Amino acid sequence: MKKIVLICSLLSVSIFYAQEEKEEPKDGWTKTGTISLLFSQSAFNEEWTGGGTSNYAANLNGTYDFNYRKGALTWDNRIMAEYGITKTKEQKFARKTNDRLELNSILGKQIKETNWYYSYFLNFKTQFSSGYTYFEDMDGEEQRIETTKFMSPGYIQTGPGFLWKKSDNLKVNFSPATARFIIVDNAFTSVPGYVDGDYFGLDQGESVRFEVGASVNAYAKFELMKNVSVENILNLYANYLEDPQNVDIDYTLNLLMSVNKYITANFTLQAIYDDNAVKGFQIREALGVGVTYGF
What we know:
Largest sheet: 12 strands, antiparallel, barrel
Keywords: Signal
Number of helices: 1
CATH class: Mainly Beta
Signal peptide: 1-18
Oligomer: single chain
Strand order of the largest sheet: 1-2-3-4-5-8-9-10-11-12-13-14
Protein name: DUF3078 domain-containing protein
Pfam families: DUF3078 (PF11276)
Organism: Jejudonia soesokkakensis
CATH architecture: Beta Barrel
């Protein structure tokens, strides 16, 4: 509960700051994107006495926004792609540190001359490559078992609702009738001894789980100080058909610090609660310095 309060507090502070920003709406397309590469590497020879393990890590992030407006009609779209790996000398396998592919799309029709819109949204989320659990066999050899992969799981949410939009950098969409599809490879739900609901809430042999519920999607981005910007992304979902009190939470905080046009430092914190996946919060954080290109 404390973590939920903290996430909501961070978003509230972000909205307070972002409200200072004013944008005059313009018709036509607005397109922006960034690509950043963070890389680190350490190497030690056999004579090095201070301890340490040779390793490398790389993380590639990309975002692309393409928004359209014509009169009272708006159509906002964002693609987010992230992938990271790390490898140490003692490990047999490289391991993922980040893996995300997400599309958000909201179509809105302005209600008179207000910040409110009738809306229809689509959200799609999955990952690029397989995820594993790692263990050592009887001989001490590192082994792994595949637990997830591309489109296993895959999430699709869509539905009508209401959008409050101050600007492209400050908006909240509420959909009281959201259809949600959780898609998996049924090879994971067909293993001997499988217990219904164990794999992302699906029953034995199933590959698609259908839910109906309510969702809230909020986005707030603002400049904290010169060359330092903060981006907040919050997704909430409650399933009417099963345990509606267990709200799924997906919150991401991105802190971008620009050294110059190409060199940046990035900090990312992501907190996920989905009791169909894990009975607790999933926390991911990443910090690095790398090269960023905007277009």
